């Protein structure tokens, strides 16, 4: 059953946590950002399993980030754990609210309406000159239950916090996928009306998924804001949503882990491309994506499955 | 007041013409192939860069200006033809039948690659192609001065709409296309060469994208990243009108064009929100856009 | 069976990456033979590449080359920095602030650069600042304009030789009023993002102080990179303003100029372009005669004809066949400032970031754009004089010209030390020394 896999997964999370002090700082910071973004991707995976693709997930990402940044700015409250939770809750509330509207939409119309909503938030933030408009503003240095680290210790604390939030989210989402409503995703994707005939309100199931994805987006945004130390309206721009969708497709919807693998691979490839070919990195990134889609139809997640399958076939 | 009103109408019409020219290729490809084509931005950019090259070559000759405009459009459309053909035959047909989102991402990947191809071909500097617009001159209408080139743009948009309408209703290929749009499987079952229809449609869409870039080139500075802004603009227009409908794109362009002009004249603060605000409103009221009938769901 | 087992592979990827990172750590610079490493960051792709990023990078390339050859004029004629050759790494600024911060960390922690010089966007500068402070990484911003960097907090490792953007707006207002005695009304068109909003706010504030009776008519804020200004031009055609302020740059500026010219707007009102200098070599006779041109300081044709300016202009022309525009000047000024600070600190061996920062504070020197004084932000922010002029295309020479240049001393257009720019303007620009 699942238990062995969960043991292995948990163990590896612990190893990653233990290995942190040995990592070069820039790697740790890259992993932190990749794993913060992975939460947003995880939310997109939840939606994608039901056939929905949001071109506006940056809305929640941005709300999570601004919630953290604004609370710290206005109240001086800097506890990272509480702030991240508040970021998730804030985005979740907004998702619950717009969910009443969005849950009725499908396909491209869902994508375009969510895009419009995120762009309206972008417009509002650009208009808010007191928050620095497109320049954004910096986020106060966080504390951890009274502990106020600096330098390398701060980076490590954020790394561990991100890892912890990711682990909890991964466990919860994995158990959601196994639950009845979670398992309804594929039937909804294939044929909604038949699901309705089973006596299930599809709108309500999708509304729940929107909230889950919203909370995950908010948590991701909150963690990203803390680890970057800066927020700006660009976090809500459609290109930001676009890159999350990009990673989601790259990763595939096969599993929870795929979101993390995809996000890490994306950040790594981007960073290497910028390093090796500073003026042709878009081409490198685009080619990597194209090759993945052509040769790994189910995303990076499936690569792992294939390797495992091959290993299993050995005598 | 009358002055403002007439200014809003003319400005709105000019902006709508721009939006329609930019969106028509996108909506055609979506209507037939159900592909949300991000590469449309690249076609636009290549069309614009191609136009700049054409104008650069032409400006050194002594031929009349009007011919230069035609040369510019011809070169851009030739670029669109080649790109469309290579892309559809070389890459897209490998992913037909895959999830729609995956296909969107393929076009996105190609868009990223092409952005850097522009740097490789034309370098990072910006280009100008203003000669046709300057040669066109202007017309004074009381207080307002209109650029004749804008009038040409409106004429081109109207001509495109007319041709599209005629081609879809009265030509053999147009009727084949309508059949494929309506039901792909049945069309194939009746012996229509769907693969060929796809190729032709994509190439026409690509040429229209490049045409959009070419006719806009004289009005702008042709610089890196011009394709990015156009993509989402075209998406918005198409979503407002109804995905895949030509008359929808026309109405969508007019609605956005007039609203934007009104905002600039009356409440400039709202300009930033116009496109997305209109899109959100229209989608809330008419979830499938203005011009698409709600479709029966398959059980 | 759950898919949970796949998480390990993510961790394996982490391990691989960290292993890849190890060598960088292992190769600690050995002795004085190791070059001084500089990270140069500017836009190499995207819309800001052609007007700012590329001229900035070009400026860095030729100046660093001249340094390494020991061919820069005195007092900059020591080889490299303090006798050690410079090795530059060029990085693209494009992307989100997340990418910008990640690449900054990579430069400092992975590539172990000795200093980072760069950044065009104010958003990038604001995001990089706290990280630079935390990593104790010496950083010199070259083009970004926001005054917030040194107003929000005192900084230790961050410097900006180029003056901030407040000066551009105040200079524009002073020049406009000097040239248009009968001005009764003005309008503005600026991009709807931080740069455009700040530029307009400062210009409007300065106009209110200097000419309170002049009215504001149309205030337009089109979306960034919208590219089509039909409605804006119509609105302005219906206005009675005699002057139009704009902080548009490159793509948007050129598109606006082509479109307004087709409809004769510049025949009705004088346009003031605070960044116009960066566009004159491309627009040439398409730039309207009589336009008021600024260049973020006394750069390019607005610069005084000093030896060092002639040197810089020549080496730039020789390589790129086009005169340097203001981003190139700003990059050159930044590198010259860094060189002085580095060599001042290098008296006893290779200096660390603390030593260079201490030496950098409050320096003064002559660069191609005039006399720089690191006067603001506790010695971290430079001020220079600024200049505005009127555009003319010289048909005989077939070259752009800026005539009727008026120079404004640094203390005339910059706030005094310790005073916030926005507040200074709002309070009536007290203590401005204009003669």
Briefly say what this structure is.
The complex is a heterotrimer of chains A (315), B (299) and C (435). Chain A has 14 helices and two strands; from the N terminus they run αααααβαααααβαααα.
Describe how the helices and strands are arranged.
The complex is a heterotrimer of chains A (315), B (299) and C (435).
Chain A (H helix, E strand, L loop, with lengths): L1 H18 L5 H25 L8 H18 L4 H23 L4 H21 L9 E2 L13 H27 L1 H4 L1 H6 L1 H6 L4 H27 L1 E2 L6 H14 L4 H21 L4 H15 L4 H14 L2
Antiparallel strand pairs in A: 1-2
Helix pairs in contact in A: 1-6, 2-6, 2-10, 2-11, 2-12, 3-4, 3-10, 4-10, 6-10, 11-12, 12-13
Chain B lengths: L1 H32 L6 H20 L5 H31 L4 H23 L4 E2 L2 H6 L1 E4 L2 E4 H23 L1 H11 L1 H6 L4 H23 L4 E2 L3 H16 L4 H21 L7 H12 L14
Antiparallel strand pairs in B: 1-4, 2-3
Chain C lengths: L6 H20 L9 E7 L6 H21 L16 E7 L4 H14 L4 E4 L3 H14 L3 E3 L6 H4 L6 E3 L5 H14 L5 E5 L4 H17 L4 E6 L9 H8 L5 E4 L3 H13 L2 H4 L1 E4 L6 H4 L8 E2 L13 H14 L5 H20 L7 H8 L3 E4 L2 E7 L4 E3 L2 E9 L4 E10 L1 H4 L7 H6 L9
Parallel strand pairs in C: 1-2, 1-3, 3-4, 4-5, 6-7, 6-8, 8-9, 9-10
Antiparallel strand pairs in C: 10-14, 11-12, 12-13, 14-15
Outline the structure in words.
The complex is a heterotrimer of chains A (315), B (299) and C (435). Chain A contains 14 helices and two strands. Chain A has helices at residues 2-19, 25-49, 58-75, 80-102, 107-127, 152-178, 180-183, 185-190, 192-197, 202-228, 238-251, 256-276, 281-295, 300-313, and strands at 137-138, 230-231. A two-stranded antiparallel ribbon of chain A has the order 1-2. Chain A is globular, with a radius of gyration of 19 Å. Chain B is mainly alpha-helical. In chain B, a hairpin with a 2-residue loop joins strand 2 and strand 3 (144-147). Chain B starts with a helix and ends in a 14-residue tail after the last helix. Chain B is built from twelve helices and four strands. With 435 residues, chain C is an alpha/beta fold. Helix content of chain C is 43%, strand content 18%. Chain C has helices spanning 7-26, 49-69, 97-110, 122-135, 148-151, 166-179, 194-210, 230-237, 250-262, 265-268, 280-283, 307-320, 326-345, 353-360, 410-413, 421-426; strands at 36-42, 86-92, 115-118, 139-141, 158-160, 185-189, 215-220, 243-246, 270-273, 292-293, 364-367, 370-376, 381-383, 386-394, 399-408. The longest helix of chain C has 21 residues, at 49-69.
């Amino acid at each position: 059953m699942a238990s062995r896999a969960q043991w292995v997964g948990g163990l590896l999370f612990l190893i990653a946590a233990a290995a942190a002090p040995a990592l070069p700082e820039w790697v740790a910071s890259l992993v932190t950002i990749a794993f913060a973004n992975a939460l947003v991707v995880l939310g997109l995976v939840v939606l994608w399993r039901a056939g929905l693709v949001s071109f506006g997930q940056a809305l929640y990402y941005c709300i999570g980030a601004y919630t953290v940044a604004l609370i710290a700015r206005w109240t001086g409250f800097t506890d990272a754990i509480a702030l991240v939770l508040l970021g998730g809750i804030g985005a979740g509330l907004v998702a619950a609210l717009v969910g009443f509207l969005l849950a009725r939409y499908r396909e491209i119309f869902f994508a375009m309406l969510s895009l419009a909503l995120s762009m309206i938030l972008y417009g509002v933030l650009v208009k808010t000159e007191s928050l620095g408009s497109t320049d954004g503003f910096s986020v106060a240095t966080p504390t951890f239950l009274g502990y106020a680290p600096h330098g390398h210790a701060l980076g490590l604390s954020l790394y561990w916090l991100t890892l912890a939030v990711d682990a909890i989210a991964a466990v919860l989402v994995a158990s959601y996928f196994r639950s009845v409503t979670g398992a309804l995703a594929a039937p909804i994707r294939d044929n909604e009306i038949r699901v309705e005939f089973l006596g299930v309100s599809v709108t309500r199931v999708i509304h729940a998924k929107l909230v889950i994805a919203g909370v995950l987006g908010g948590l991701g945004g909150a963690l990203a804001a803390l680890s970057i130390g800066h927020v700006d309206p660009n976090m809500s721009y459609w290109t930001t949503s676009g890159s999350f969708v990009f990673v989601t497709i790259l990763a595939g919807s096969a599993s929870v882990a795929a979101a993390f693998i995809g996000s890490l691979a994306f950040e790594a490839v981007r960073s290497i491309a910028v390093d090796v070919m500073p003026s042709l990195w878009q081409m490198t990134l685009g080619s990597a994506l194209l090759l993945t889609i052509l040769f790994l139809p189910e995303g990076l997640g499936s690569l792992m499955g294939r390797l495992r399958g091959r290993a299993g076939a050995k005598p | 007041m009358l002055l403002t009103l007439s200014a809003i109408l003319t400005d709105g019409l000019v902006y709508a013409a721009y939006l329609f020219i930019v969106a028509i290729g996108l909506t055609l490809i979506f209507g037939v192939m159900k592909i949300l084509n991000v590469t449309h931005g690249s076609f636009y950019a290549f069309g614009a860069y191609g136009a700049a090259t054409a104008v650069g070559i032409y400006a050194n000759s002594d031929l009349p200006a009007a011919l230069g405009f035609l040369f510019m459009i011809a070169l851009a459309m030739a670029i669109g033809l080649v790109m469309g053909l290579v892309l559809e035959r070389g890459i897209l047909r490998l992913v037909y039948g895959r999830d729609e989102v995956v296909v969107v991402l393929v076009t996105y990947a190609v868009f990223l690659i092409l952005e850097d191809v522009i740097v490789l071909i034309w370098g990072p500097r910006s280009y100008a192609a203003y000669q046709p617009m300057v040669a066109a001159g202007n017309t004074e209408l009381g207080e307002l001065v209109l650029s004749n080139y804008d009038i040409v743009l409106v004429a081109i948009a109207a001509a495109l709409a007319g041709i599209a309408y005629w081609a879809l209703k009265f030509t053999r290929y147009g009727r084949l296309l309508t059949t494929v749009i309506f039901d792909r499987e049945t069309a194939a079952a009746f012996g229509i060469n769907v693969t060929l229809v796809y190729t032709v449609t994509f190439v026409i869409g690509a040429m229209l994208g490049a045409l959009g870039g070419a006719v806009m080139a004289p009005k702008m500075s042709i610089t890196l990243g011009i394709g990015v802004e156009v993509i989402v603009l075209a998406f918005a227009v198409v979503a407002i009108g109804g995905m895949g409908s030509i008359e929808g794109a026309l109405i969508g362009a007019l609605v956005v064009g007039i609203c934007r002009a009104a905002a600039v004249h009356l409440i400039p603060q709202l300009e930033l929100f116009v496109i997305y605000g209109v899109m959100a409103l229209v989608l809330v009221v008419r979830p499938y856009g203005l011009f698409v009938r709600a479709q029966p769901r398959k059980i | 069976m759950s898919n949970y087992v796949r998480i390990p592979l993510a961790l394996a990827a982490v391990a691989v990456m960290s292993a890849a990172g190890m060598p960088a750590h292992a190769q600690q610079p050995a002795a004085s033979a190791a070059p001084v490493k500089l990270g140069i960051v500017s836009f190499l792709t995207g819309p800001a590449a052609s007007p700012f990023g590329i001229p900035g990078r070009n400026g860095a390339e030729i100046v660093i080359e001249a340094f390494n050859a020991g061919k820069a004029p005195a007092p900059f004629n020591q080889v490299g920095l303090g006798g050690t050759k410079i090795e530059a790494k060029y990085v693209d600024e494009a992307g989100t602030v997340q990418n910008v911060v990640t690449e900054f960390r990579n430069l400092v922690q992975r590539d172990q650069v000795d200093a980072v010089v760069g950044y065009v966007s104010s958003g990038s500068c604001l995001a990089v600042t706290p990280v630079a402070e935390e990593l104790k990484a010496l950083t010199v911003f070259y083009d970004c304009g926001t005054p917030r960097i040194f107003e929000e907090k005192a900084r230790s490792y961050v410097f900006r030789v180029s003056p901030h953007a407040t000066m551009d707006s105040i200079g524009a207002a002073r020049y406009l009023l000097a040239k248009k005695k009968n001005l009764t009304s003005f309008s503005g068109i600026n991009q709807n993002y931080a740069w455009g909003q700040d530029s307009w706010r400062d210009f409007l504030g300065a106009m209110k102080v200097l000419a309170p009776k002049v009215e504001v008519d149309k205030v337009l804020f089109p979306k960034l990179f919208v590219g089509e200004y039909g409605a804006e031009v119509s609105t302005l055609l219906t206005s009675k303003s005699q002057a139009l302020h704009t902080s548009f740059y490159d793509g948007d500026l050129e598109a606006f100029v082509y479109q307004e010219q087709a409809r004769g707007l510049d025949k009705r009102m004088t346009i003031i372009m605070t960044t116009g200098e960066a566009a004159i070599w491309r627009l040439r006779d398409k730039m309207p005669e009589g336009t008021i041109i600024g260049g973020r300081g006394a750069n390019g044709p607005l610069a005084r004809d000093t030896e060092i300016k002639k040197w810089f202009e020549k080496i730039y022309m020789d390589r790129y066949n086009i005169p340097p525009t203001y981003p190139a000047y700003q990059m050159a000024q930044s590198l010259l400032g860094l060189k002085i600070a580095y060599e001042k600190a290098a008296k006893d061996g290779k200096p660390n970031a603390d030593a260079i920062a201490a030496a950098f504070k409050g320096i003064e020197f002559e660069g191609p754009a005039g006399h720089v004084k690191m006067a603001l932000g506790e010695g971290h922010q430079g001020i220079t004089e600024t200049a505005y002029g009127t555009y003319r295309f010289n048909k005989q020479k077939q070259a752009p010209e800026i005539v009727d240049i008026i120079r404004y001393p640094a203390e005339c257009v910059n706030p005094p030390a310790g005073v916030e720019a926005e507040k200074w303007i709002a309070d009536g620009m007290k203590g401005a020394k204009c003669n």
